[in-house]
């Protein structure tokens, strides 16, 4: 009885549980993009385990990879000891890395969450540079541990943690729709000049940081793709000042944004990449990859028990190889382009759609107050209440979507990269109907 399960868990679990409140379903089966609840209802999954399911649920190549490990009787857990599965995963990872980084890369296996790999990147760059600070961006999301939280923007959950999280210098991310300078499309250029000035101003309050950390497309921040010239500017600015550039590709990696790694679209390479989510083929795995000149840690500098999960390495290797062999990044690029065009067309009938944006199959729809007067760059006030209603109406129609953004008013679409054209059509139809119902 799904209602009994939901009630029992509500009584026993932490008050901080989140998704369980929003999605009152008890999933018992999942395949591809379809999740089936205990009550037999089917849902199209545009959340994909918060972006972990690049190949969707129970993809045969991932299932087989896991089954092979089990059949061989391989150790499921091996700390950070070398295993054939780790060897294969590292092979697949290095084959997929940006070529310049691959030639001189080192990988460190972290605790199994993205936030631990962020922590590792921040600690490593501290050790390597002898500096302490971190330059991070408005709207960023890097995780929940103290260091990662420090680098995250002003997400609501951070407020009660003031004093726990370390300090980071907050720099303006180029979010054109709600540009902090009110400059719309030139937000990238203005941000780059501001960042450069601040780093060079002896009285700017910015001690030379150990690292600059950023997402090439902010996910939790409301699906905000950085302009490619801005990414190139951040590369130039950090390179000229000897600041390691850390790319958080936890959500954007493994083909999600139309290239294997989101930064590749800009034609530049980072010094450090933080990877998790899809990298483990939906099983828990996180790594930090960095250029070998940063390899300054002594043994034991960043340990953790769960750094040798054989099943995750097998699933991750299978996923990486499949994304490459089936050219799923290109597919994400083409399908995403069409999806955004269709969503933009939908905006004609739905005045609550303020902006449609994204890259590849990481897309967002910013919902706004339809009747409000736009500001001088054309943005209207965010509509978080409407967004909550749209999410509920979507679920009612068999579509799982999550919200994000500065005002929790962005509907995020993170379907598996293997979504079919037909499924994409169904997503649009259900979203259209949900918007109509919520706008009433
Ligand atoms: N970085 C980014 C860009 C993320 O999107 C997330 C998770 N949403 C994290 C880090 C943290 O990963 P985890 O939840 O696995 O700790």
Describe the structure.
Belongs to the class-III pyridoxal-phosphate-dependent aminotransferase family. There is one protein chain. The chain has 440 residues and is an alpha/beta fold. It folds into two domains: 2-58 and 327-439, Aspartate Aminotransferase, domain 1 (Alpha-Beta Complex), CATH 3.90.1150.10; 62-325, Type I PLP-dependent aspartate aminotransferase-like (Major domain) (Aspartate Aminotransferase, domain 2), CATH 3.40.640.10. Helices cover 38% and strands 15% of the residues. It contains 14 helices and 17 strands. The protein has helices at 2-12, 19-22, 48-51, 60-72, 84-96, 99-103, 114-129, 146-151, 187-200, 228-240, 310-325, 328-347, 384-396, 421-439; strands at residues 27-31, 34-37, 42-45, 105-109, 134-137, 169-171, 211-214, 217-218, 224-225, 245-248, 272-275, 287-291, 353-359, 362-367, 399-400, 402-404, 410-413. The radius of gyration is 21 Å and the shape is globular.
């Amino acid at each position: 009885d799904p209602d009994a399960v939901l009630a029992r868990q509500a009584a026993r679990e932490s008050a901080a549980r989140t998704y369980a409140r929003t999605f009152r379903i008890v999933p018992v089966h999942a395949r591809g993009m379809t999740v089936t609840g205990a009550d037999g209802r089917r849902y199209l999954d545009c959340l994909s385990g918060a972006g972990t399911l690049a190949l969707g649920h129970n993809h045969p190549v991932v299932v087989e990879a896991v089954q092979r490990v089990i059949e061989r009787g391989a150790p499921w857990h091996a700390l950070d000891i070398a295993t054939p599965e780790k060897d294969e995963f590292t092979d697949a990872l290095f084959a997929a890395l940006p070529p310049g980084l691959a030639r001189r890369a080192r990988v460190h296996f972290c605790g199994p969450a993205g936030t631990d790999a962020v922590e590792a990147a921040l600690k490593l760059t501290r050790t390597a540079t002898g500096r302490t600070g971190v330059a991070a961006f408005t709207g960023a999301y890097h995780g929940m541990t103290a260091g990662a939280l420090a680098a995250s923007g002003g997400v609501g959950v951070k407020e009660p943690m003031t004093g726990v999280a370390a300090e980071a210098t907050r720099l303006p991310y180029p979010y054109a729709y709600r540009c902090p300078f009110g400059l719309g499309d030139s937000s990238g250029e203005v941000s780059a000049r501001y960042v450069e000035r601040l780093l060079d101003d002896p009285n700017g309050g910015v001690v030379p940081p150990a690292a600059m950390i950023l997402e090439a497309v902010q996910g939790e921040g409301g699906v905000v793709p950085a302009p490619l010239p801005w990414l190139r500017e951040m590369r130039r600015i950090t390179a000229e000042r000897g600041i390691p550039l850390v790319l958080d590709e936890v959500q954007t990696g493994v083909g999600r944004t139309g290239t294997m790694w989101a930064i590749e679209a800009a034609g530049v390479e980072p010094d450090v990449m933080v990877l998790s989510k899809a990298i483990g083929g939906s099983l828990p795995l996180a790594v930090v990859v960095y250029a070998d000149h940063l390899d300054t840690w002594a043994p034991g500098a960043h340990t953790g028990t769960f750094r040798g999960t054989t099943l995750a390495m097998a699933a991750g290797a299978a996923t990486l190889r499949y994304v490459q062999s089936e050219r799923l990044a290109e597919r994400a690029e083409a399908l995403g382009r069409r999806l955004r065009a269709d969503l933009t067309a939908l905006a004609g009938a739905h005045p609550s759609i303020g902006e449609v944006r994204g890259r590849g199959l990481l897309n967002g729809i910013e919902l706004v107050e339809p009747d409000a007067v736009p500001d001088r760059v054309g943005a209207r006030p965010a509509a978080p209440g409407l967004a909550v209603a749209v999410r509920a109406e979507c679920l009612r129609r068999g579509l799982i979507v999550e919200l994000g953004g500065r005002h929790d008013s962005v509907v995020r679409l993170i379907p598996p990269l293997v979504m079919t054209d037909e499924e994409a059509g169904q997503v649009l139809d259900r979203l259209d109907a949900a918007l109509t119902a919520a706008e009433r």
